[in-house]
User: What shape does this take?
Amino acid sequence: MSGRKYLVTGGTGFLGSALVKRLVRDGHQVRVLDDNSRGRAARLADIEGHYEYFPADVRDPEAVSRACQGIEMVCHLAFVNGTEFFYTKPELVLDVAVKGMVNVLDGCKAHDVPDLFLMSSSEVYQTPPRVPTDETAPLSIPDPLNPRYSYAAGKIISEIMAINYGRQRFRRVVTVRPHNVYGADMGFEHVVPQFALRMRTLKDSAADPVPFPIQGDGRQTRSFVYIDDFTDGVVLAMNEGDHLGIYHVGTLEEVTMIELAEKVGQCFGRRIQVVPGKLPEGGTNRRCPDIAKISRLGYAPKFTLDAALPQVPRWYDEHAHLAPAKS
Ligand SMILES: NC(=O)c1ccc[n+]([C@@H]2O[C@H](COP(=O)([O-])OP(=O)(O)OC[C@H]3O[C@@H](n4cnc5c(N)ncnc54)[C@H](O)[C@@H]3O)[C@@H](O)[C@H]2O)c1
Assistant: This one.
């Protein structure tokens, strides 16, 4: 077998499995470390037999060290993702974040792994000072008492550790801050699947438009990037990014939650009328990345939200039985 040797932590997750499939398709050897706490090996069914599965908890130092053996680049994605977990399981979020990062750095050091890729998050900015937001905006934790920031804190710690441990010891450390990636089988604790499943239960409503409850007044914005475009950007950053470089991968297509809900409604052939609700504390009103830096490496997202969104509610309609009981 030719190609480079990659270890992808979190490789059976939504973003990880897309990356693993891309690397395998590009002729590389890939080892996947995941405990399947949130991931599913079924996501890698198309490439069964073409990757090595290494079942382990990223908090286990010996296992992570063994997984690093013979590897040329570690792509570190294992993390507890999903907004509702930031509020309900903040200790777990930080435990996986901090121990996982320490173990990955130690494993790389023990086995002379030259390159490290880190998946961070747009959440490191909380309320960014400008929108679109570029990579130089300050990272912040507005309130250490709000459990929501467990996730952002874990990402900030990971970035600072990767950069400072990696400055001298690695040939290259590259970080991507994803901005709201969507696609089929993206998990259940995110706004697109939640809207899709809510709409599924309301689609036969006699009312027209259908009353559709949401969190907040619906004027909050996000910029959603389709998984295929996102993975293109990640691979580009991994291959071409500067040592210690940080790159946004996302789109400039900013939509309000009202617009998103309307689009999901259209996917079910229904018009909706949003019913505003309470917004959990700690969310931010606008998020849209400045993508000039990754664009200079050749990144150009191809899918508009209108083009790629419809398959996502369709997937959740067909796979609603996989949803955790309370969704
Ligand atoms: N999806 C997005 O839009 C988005 C946005 C910003 C950042 N991210 C980051 O990208 C990465 C991947 O996110 P995702 O959307 O694929 O989430 P995901 O939950 O689908 O994937 C995370 C993976 O990590 C694994 N994992 C969790 N705890 C583990 C542990 N202790 N040991 C081993 N494996 C463990 C899970 O089983 C899962 O497969 C994460 O680091 C996440 O924080 C994602």
